[in-house]
Every structure is written in C-alpha cells, then in structure tokens.
Amino acid sequence: MNSWLYIGIFVALSLFFPALLAVLGWFLGPRRPNPVKTDTYECGLETVGETWVQFKIQYYLFALVFLIFDVELVFLYPWAVAYNSLPLYAVVEGVIFIILLAAALVYAWRKGALTWS
Predict the structure, then answer these.
(1) Using CA of residue 63, residue 66, residue 70, residue 71, what is the dihedral sign?
(2) pTM of the model
(3) Is a pLDDT exceeding 90 seen at residue 16?
(4) Domains identified in the chain and CATH numbers
(5) φ, ψ for residue 88 (rounded to 5)?
(6) pLDDT score, position 28
(7) Within 1-117, where are the H helices?
(8) How far apart are CA 53 and CA 55, in angstroms?
(9) What is the arithmetic mean of pLDDT over 9-38?
(10) Three-state SS for 42?
(11) For residue 22, which phi and psi values (nearest 5 degrees)?
C-alpha cells in the first residue's frame, strides 16, 4: 500500500468521528429550552443592563500579536536546539527570521498595538 493512503485514511477518520459525535449529540440530546437555560450566564450572576457589550479592538490586537509571536517561538525552538549541527545557510535563514520578527515587533510597537489602556 502507498504510505499516503494511511495519511488519507487518518484524515478521513479524524474528520468523520467528530462529525459523527456532533450529529449524534444533536439527534439524541434533550430539547427542552426554558428561560433559565437560555439566559446568559456570567460568573453565576444575572446580567444587569445590556448583555452584549462591545470590546475594544485593542484586546484582540494584543492577543493576536501574542499568538503570532508564540507560534513563531515554536519554529525557533527546534532551530535553537540543533544550532550546533546546522549548516551555514540554515543559520543565516534563522537570523533572517529573527530580524523579520524584530521588524514586526517594532512595527506593532509603533502602531500602538502593545499599549494597554
């Protein structure tokens, strides 16, 4: 058998089983809504006033910048572990990647995405 067939079977099963569980939960789950179940739950307290509050975009930008730099750390960690055994072009590529990260950090800093207010 081709080795790609195993990957295809794995992908198909990984899509099939969660979809199957979601469909079974929808069919077999109880459907008896009442005002208490459909009410907005917020830390055990009943909400006062308007429930839907618009958040500042700064919170999302801060989280997005954190996520981007956190994911890029995943790329840098194996490079740092294998640093002694890397050829010169891999070291140069890593340095270019770090320079791009620094430029992105400076850009986000100048745009005010890192100021918390």
Answers:
(1) positive
(2) 0.48
(3) yes
(4) 3-111 (1.20.58)
(5) -60, -40
(6) 92
(7) 3-28, 35-38, 57-81, 88-111
(8) 6
(9) 90
(10) strand
(11) -65, -40
